[in-house]
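Page 37, continued from 36.
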């Protein structure tokens, strides 16, 4: 059925064809397809963002654990010896009670990070000690923290190096003997 509308004369302001009201089925299908396409693209972007956020969180945790481990070695809480991919287990918090007794206020409460200790069994650490050829009084201390292989396809790694001064006249043959009983260098 074909409808023919008459063309109004210039003096007439109203058309004799009825105006189309509403939207057609084709417009609804097209709008739905565009909406679904945008939802698919946005969901993939959200997934990629979540993956990158997890990677950044793991990288930050690896950096924090590496810094924490190198500080423990420098304080003498961990031995200063070459270690390859040992599980990073938390140190016992036995000595922290003595620090609290020295201060009147309770400033040391909550400073021991138990969250780092709780989940650190998923991490491995390596310690490498090498002499610095250019400076005979220095040794190079490198600590590397990495995730265990079973966690991710591409485990996160973080490496931190520091030059440490020691006294050659101490007569010690191994780097682990450079520490005194107080936990510092002789």
């Amino acid at each position: 059925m074909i409808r023919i509308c008459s063309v109004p004369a210039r003096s007439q302001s109203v058309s004799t064809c009825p105006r189309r009201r509403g939207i057609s089925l084709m417009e609804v299908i097209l709008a739905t397809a565009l909406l679904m396409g945008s939802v698919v693209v946005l969901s993939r972007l959200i997934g990629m963002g979540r993956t990158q956020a997890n990677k950044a969180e793991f990288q930050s945790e690896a950096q924090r654990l590496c810094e924490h481990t190198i500080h423990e070695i420098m304080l003498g809480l961990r031995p200063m010896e070459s270690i390859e991919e040992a599980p990073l287990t938390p140190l016992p918090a036995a000595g922290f009670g003595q620090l609290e007794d020295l201060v009147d206020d309770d400033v040391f409460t909550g400073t021991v990070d138990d969250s780092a200790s709780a989940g650190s069994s998923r991490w491995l650490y390596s310690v490498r000690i090498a002499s610095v050829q250019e400076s005979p009084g220095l040794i190079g201390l490198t600590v590397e923290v990495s995730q265990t292989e079973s966690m991710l396809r591409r485990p996160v790694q973080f490496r931190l190096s520091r030059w440490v001064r020691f006294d050659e006249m101490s007569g010690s043959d191994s780097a682990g003997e450079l520490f005194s009983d107080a936990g510092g260098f002789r």
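DSSP finds three helices and four strands in the chain. Flag for discussion at group meeting. Residues 25-92+116-178 form one domain.
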